[in-house]
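User: Can you write out an input/output pair for a complex, sequences first and structure second?

Assistant: Here is one pair. Inputs:
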Amino acid sequence: MLNQQGRGGMWVALCFEFASSWIERKEVFLSNLEMESDCSKNEETCPQLLDLIPQEREWYTKRKDGKIHLSSEEKKLELRLGPPGGDDNWSIKLNAKNNRERDEPVISLGYLSSMNNNGKQAPKFPSPEDHHHPVGSVLSPSWTKTHHHDHQQLTNPPFLQFPSTPHQSLPVTAKESSQSCCTKAVNMNAEEKPFSPTANTVAPPNTSLKRSAPGPVVGWPPIRSFRKNLATSSSSKPASEPPHKAANEKKGAEPSAKFVKINMDGVPIGRKVDLKAYDSYEKLSAAVDELFRGLLAAQRDSCAGGIVKKVEEEKTITGLLDGSGEYTLVYEDNEGDRMLVGDVPWHMFVSTVQRLRVLKSSELSALSLGSSRQGKIPA
Amino acid sequence: MMNYFPDEVLEHVFDFITCHKDRNSVSLVCKSWHRIERYSRRRVFIGNCYSISPERLIARFPGVKSLTLKGKPHFADFNLVPYDWGGFVYPWIKVLAETGIGLEELRLKRMVVSDESLELLSKSFVNFQSLVLVSCDGFSADGLAAIAANCRFLRELDLQENEVDDHRGHWLSCFPESCTSLVSLNFACLKGEVNLGALERLVSRSPNLKSLRLNRSVPLDTLQKLLMRAPQLVDLGIGSYVHDPLSEASNKLKHAIQRCKSIMSLSGFLEVAPRCMSAIYPICGNLTTLNLSYAPGIHGNKLTKLIQHCRKLQRLWILDCIGDKGLGVVASTCKELQELRVFPSDPFGAGNDAVTEEGLVLVSAGCPKLNSLLYFCQQMTNAALITVAKNCPNFIRFRLCILDPVRPDPVTNQPLDEGFGAIVQSCKQLKRLSLSGLLTDQVFLYIGMYAEQLEMLSIAFAADSDKGMLYVLNGCKKLRKLEIRDCPFGNAALLEDVGKYETMRSLWMSSCEVTLGGCKTVAENMPSLNVEIINESGQTVFNLDEGQKVDKMYLYRTLVGHRKDAPESNQTYLKCRGDLTRSDHHEPSLNDMIKDMKLKNISGDDDFIISESNNFKLQSQLFEKEEAEIMILKWKRL
């Protein structure tokens, strides 16, 4: 019966739309079964939304249409549910009751009424003895109700009063008259204490602390770490730079500087060192220590669990050359091989080194030093 | 009159339903549909790996073939979550392997993936085809080698922005000669060298390869050879792009690029010389996706010239060195643009090149199809936001990050409440919103009122009082993820309606006013929530006073209680005093169940978790019918 894709597709649409609207329908149906006492709200008055967006310099009142759950496409399908025999009991009409079923954005003012007026927050959460009541119901009796709202005047929604912008490029509509919008109202749950922003005395004193723009803040701006140093990364330099980058190193040339990349285990961002600035392995080792000591400590800091002290002491990185330290210095030569630093005379090292790496000494035995071509690892 | 459909028919119909939300809805219709859907579901999405266990997943969906798992909270991306927090995939792979599930696809985000897990994965599932790791860590090139070596039918290996320890670069050589099935290979995030010869051979024997993203170590001449061998590519990520435009190598590259007439997505340029971009022009006309966000070297004229060739662009990721003028070029060229992401190139600097509200307004005016935005800028004005809201009412994602977190509108010195209010009021389909700048409680009032479809909200350095959070919790019925940092929200807001959190995936609050006592109260009253506390002030959580504020709180709904793998510094409370089985014994009345259904967002979730919870098992008893009885009187062709 479903040998035609088209019919199958339509059937699917029917089926699935039925399923997705089933949930809403059953809400309607079941609520029709019960007579809630607070059904008697005036469903006729539709609350008016403050239209924050000026259209053609006029203020439109947007009538809140009966928020029908189904899309217009779904309306094209007329479904009737019923037991076999065509009983009409179940016919479901979409009616204005749907307005009510749709939860209006309700601001629970049950909370507000419990707030002290002096602006201090006096959190009232149940003492441990109250635990046998589900917390939700103790604290927010008003949350379950849905109602239409009394209108509450907002004085001069401030956004209207933006001055005409000095930027000519901004195609911004000019100042609106604020009169028409004052008559609009914002939906508020005003069953409890009316919420009037002008009467808002709540201004927790600690707001000012939060407002002061802090120095560099952890996790701000919210970007991944590898994006933080893009601008300063030397890899963005154009190719026209003098060819004494490690990648383009030509043998026999005598450039005035030799910058090679150096990466360290556990530090995601690498550095570059000018090998010509040193004349011995010891000086290189000291330079590596200086370069990475701070970064490593910072890395430990940011990754630390709750037990590590805030100020991490910067540990000196030692024993790079003799295998005695936590880290060991290795390099990659012009044949692509990985070598321990220190075997050959310094000048020979400088002429063949392509890049450096600071590895954890514990990893050293796991590495195969020598040819970088590996066979398969044992399956 | 047909009253019942055989199972096979329904199953065939359900095959057409692929979206997670729809399948979850379908499963709630009646017992029979629930059963059929269960056995026929192949793709499962689990938004929080700690909300359910692998055993229960398999019990519910024994036929699962594709699993998506997410681990750490989103703020882990910004170093706000300790590295040892959790999110281990190994237990999942282990259970799936032991129960003989025929897993074919695994997609992980923000999870810890060890080499052991990758190795176990590679050996346990004969038909395994697709591995996608996004923002994961814990593995090295050894794990990748295991995948390459053992997954005989591998089609997709997609590594996006992971932290990989890859000082041994031989994993590419581990693809056997018999492996010819690759469709997608993305190793752009790897930092180490790769075996170039192996790469070339792999590409040569992969005729189905459509997506290839290289890392920085792949030099230009290799790129050229790869392109010659794979002109059928649809998605290309260039690693290193440094060459002398007058050279022979450059000519060969141009020729190779021109052959790739199918490329629609271009990214990478991890190392780039801007003079060389002209070689790319021939394919720019076909591009729908362009990601230059790793290439600070391209700016000014070079960048705008490039963009001017890209008339079909739908998705653009760029650095803010494009400037407002550059965004003007985007606005006039890219009329099909749907998604724009502008990242900061110098987040801590003065940002002379950075973008302001002007650029955004220009793009909103020129690109009417814009529906997704991530915009890092120096400043923003209410007027601009209102204009953007009017120009682009179709936003689904709107994430604005003003680099100074509490900056007001520089023209009026007002908070940005009205601007964001205009956005939420105009963009009725808005699902994701990130706020920044100076904001008071007022913006949250607007969000609660207007953002009816909002599913994820990120707040930082905003609000004046608990009211802000309450507006959101009360108003946003479809809210699933709420993440808050550095706001004055305390216990009153947290505890106002803890039942709400059962309808959400998770809540994150850090550097707020919530105390240990508040967290304990939530945990003790809501056995369906895990409440985790991360304290970094040096004190372990156990030493804290009830009245002391917690640094970070992460709470999420779960069906499996508190997890056993939390680090010591991170405490999950699940001490329920009183009758633990209280919720099982309580026989809900019809009224209770109706109230429950009204309160909770029951159908709009990707996650099947909520339909697994007890509430829904009870509700489905309402529908005593084994079969849904449908009488179709008429329908119109859609």
